[in-house]
Design brief:
It comes from Ambispora gerdemannii. GO terms for molecular function: damaged DNA binding; DNA-directed DNA polymerase activity; metal ion binding. Residues 91-272 form the UmuC domain. Helices cover 49% and strands 14% of the residues. By secondary structure, the protein is of the alpha+beta class. It has a five-stranded mixed β-sheet. Helix 3 runs parallel beside helix 13 (273-281) and helix 17 packs antiparallel against helix 18 (395-407). The two termini are 31 Å apart. The chain binds a DNA duplex (9 and 13 nucleotides) through helix 3, helix 7, helix 13 and strand 10.
DNA sequence: GGCCGTTAA
DNA sequence: TAGTTTAACGGCC
């Protein structure tokens, strides 16, 4: 049987629907099986399966219990959540379409009609829509992508070029909402409530205009957008008419609940492939299913998780577009051909320490906790850390404290 | 407190 | 031949 982790990966992405999923999965499986990477994925998969088994055992006990008092607690929580619903804001989530790939197409129009991806033999960052027809997608190694699509053109990433486009779209966003928040190079949230109060335009018209300006300023790049009353819904909506489209969700409870009813849980940001598997095991596939199972979720999982899914199921999200989390850590990591000799590993550590010193200086950052992660040839990760009584930032300190951790694990095999 | 796992882009 | 990098959070012991 095909590993869930390796096979059913990423097929929900736009552009992939409709192609022969079986064929793609089989090809990836045939190329991967036997590899150490694949074995490690199988181990991780088995751990998830075991975790699900435990949850199901608990679920089967709990569902027979009298949950009337639980039910009351959940009901009260839902009432509380209904009370905090806010329909006063107009939030937009903008997402550039196949960002890196579109920029490369713009700069080399011959690529437009050909399957193409940005990245290298090791890893692809993104694929154009032509390539997605073959199952080529981001987070797929280039050499596997080539087997899916032998004509695939792989273009190396040019970070500075993409950064330039990011600055261009930021300038556009600032005109509509000075508090706009970039969540990555190609994604942003805007609160256009204030702008709308002054402009004589509908939200759809404003967003249409933003997307036109993006296209004009960037030489024809397209973006998709979602418009809704909060960030969660705006993000979900920006995916609905991708690529080069926008979707506006009406600002009322009924419209929100209708959208959520049949929405696949995987579309909720924060629910990834593992959580999806877990919830699927409880017969939960859509946010509608989720709404009907909140009592059991409250019983079986932590309150934090219950709270998270309850909010998501009701379509309740933040409106604080400008909120930025304070940086808590800074790290650097490299994957390299297996090294065994302690001296070689220490040399690597020295290189990483120098690299991190530069980054720390650039951001004027320091830390009092250091952790070292080793990736074994089996792909298993080992992380060990320690608190330091002072704040450090120099390559020498990073190396010396890191070396203590590293040496404790030498020799590696 | 320390480590592992999940998620996202 | 070959399966990334960075950052944050939750769960568990």
């Amino acid at each position: 049987a095909l590993s869930n982790r390796l096979g059913g990966l990423g097929m929900h992405k736009k552009g992939l629907q409709g192609l022969d999923k079986e064929e793609v999965n089989k090809m990836i499986y045939e190329t991967s099986k036997g590899s150490k990477f694949f074995k490690n994925e199988a181990i991780k998969d088995a751990a998830v399966t075991a975790r699900i088994k435990k949850i199901l055992e608990n679920y089967n006990i709990v569902k027979k219990l009298d949950l009337s008092s639980e039910s009351a607690i959940v009901k009260a929580k839902l009432k509380e959540l209904e009370n905090i619903r806010d329909f006063t804001q107009t939030i937009v989530h903008i997402d550039m379409d196949a960002f890196y790939a579109s920029i490369e197409e713009r700069d080399n129009p011959e690529l437009r009609t050909k399957p193409m991806a940005v990245g290298d033999e090791m890893m692809l960052a993104t694929a154009n829509y032509e390539a997605r027809k073959y199952g080529v997608r981001s987070a797929l190694p280039g050499y596997i992508a080539r087997r899916l699509c032998p004509q695939l053109i792989i273009v190396p990433a040019s970070g500075e070029k993409y950064g330039l486009v990011t600055s261009q779209i930021q300038e556009i966003f600032s005109h509509y909402d000075s508090t706009f928040n970039m969540t990555s190079m190609d994604e942003a949230y805007l609160n256009i409530t204030k702008y709308l109060s002054k402009a004589e335009q509908t939200p759809d018209e404003v967003v249409q205009e933003i997307r036109q300006e993006i296209s004009k300023k960037t030489g024809g790049l397209t973006a998709s957008a979602g418009i809704a009353c909060n960030m969660l819904l705006a993000k979900i909506c920006s995916d609905l008419n991708k690529p080069n489209g926008q979707y506006k969700l009406e600002n009322d409870r009924q419209s929100v609940m209708e959208l959520m009813k049949d929405l696949n849980i995987r579309k909720i940001p924060g629910i990834g492939r593992v959580t999806e598997r877990i919830l699927n095991a409880l017969d939960i596939n859509t946010c509608g299913d989720l709404q009907g199972k909140l009592v059991i979720i409250h019983q079986v999982f932590t309150y934090t998780f219950f709270n998270f899914v309850a909010r998501a199921a009701l379509g309740i999200g933040s409106i604080d577009v400008a909120f930025k989390m304070k940086r808590k850590s800074m790290s650097v990591s490299r994957t390299f051909a297996a090294l065994h000799k302690p001296a070689d590993l220490r040399k690597k550590l020295r290189e990483l320490a120098k690299h991190l010193e530069k980054d720390l200086a650039k951001h004027n950052f320091e830390g009092c906790h250091i952790s070292l992660t080793l990736k074994m040839t089996s792909f298993k990760l080992l992380t060990r850390g320690r608190l330091i009584k002072k704040f450090i930032y120099s390559a020498d300190d990073l190396y010396n404290y890191g070396k203590v951790i590293l040496d404790a694990h030498l020799p590696l095999n």
